[in-house]
Amino acid sequence: MRLSVAQAAESLQQGCIVAYPTEAVYGLGCDPFNQQAVAALWRLKQRPDTMGVIVVGASWAQLAPFIGDIAITAQAELTACWPGAFTWVVPAAKTVPLWLTGGRDTIALRWSAHEATCSLCHAFGGAIVSTSANLHGQPVLNSAKAIEQQFNGADVFAGVMAGDLGGYDRPTPIRDLRSGQWVRQ
Hints:
This protein has about 180 residues and is an alpha/beta fold. It is built from seven helices and ten strands. It has a ten-stranded mixed beta sheet with strand order 1-8-2-3-7-4-6-5-9-10. A hairpin with a 4-residue loop joins β2 and β3. α1 (about 5-15) packs across α6. It is globular and about 45 Å long. The mean pLDDT is about 95.
């Protein structure tokens, strides 16, 4: 089923999972604070819950509650790349649920500049989970039709939000803020 931005946001608020276009690939998303929705996402993807997820937002205000203590210079490093197609692994705030971090003291965050992703976050009213639309270990599905064929029929999957991908040829790079190490280039 194809969803408008409003329908996708409403589905997220109801605890469902939606696919939505991001900078490079379709993401699967849900409400990051709904533990049942995140658990359903792991089952849908057939992915271990120890891996953690990326949380994507449309503003600093949407991501700030996820960020633990960081130096002013570290915040400047984040905002030098944001908004944009760049994911940072940062210290997680003490209030961040473990189901988002995979039990780590860090969380992966992206302040997107992609129009469709930002529209969904704004309509939802906050940041959302962002993980690639595929089964764990399988190639990323890069068309709405392929995603529907893979996930339709799952009771927690609401559908694919309309919109265009952002034109990047691969998922966003990920860098650890504390160590400076690249997680994905």
